[in-house]
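Task 17 of the worksheet. Students: predict the tertiary structure of the chain below and write it out as structure tokens. Keep your answer in the requested format; marks are given for formatting as well as content.
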Amino acid sequence: MADITLDKIIRDVQTLPVDQQRRLIEVLTQRIFQTPQKNIEQIAAEQGKGPLNFGKIRELGSFFPEEDSVDDLVQTVRTFRQDRSTRTLA
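Model answer:
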């Protein structure tokens, strides 16, 4: 059995009469829209994700004082990334 590629299919379709090409487009379009589309909640559930819990997000950020600016936070993160004294190679 010969290898069937998308390029070969396209070349073969281009040899069809225009009315058959249009019919093929109609059939393919119908199939696409008949396929049930997933909503964002279904996709998130499949990936093991759920709604954001802002309470947990606040807890994660609680290590940094609220009165400090975002610039201070960015500088702290940069400092942590440059400080290799606490890093170990496992």
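Marker's comment: The first helix runs from residue 6 to 14. The chain has a mean pLDDT of 84.
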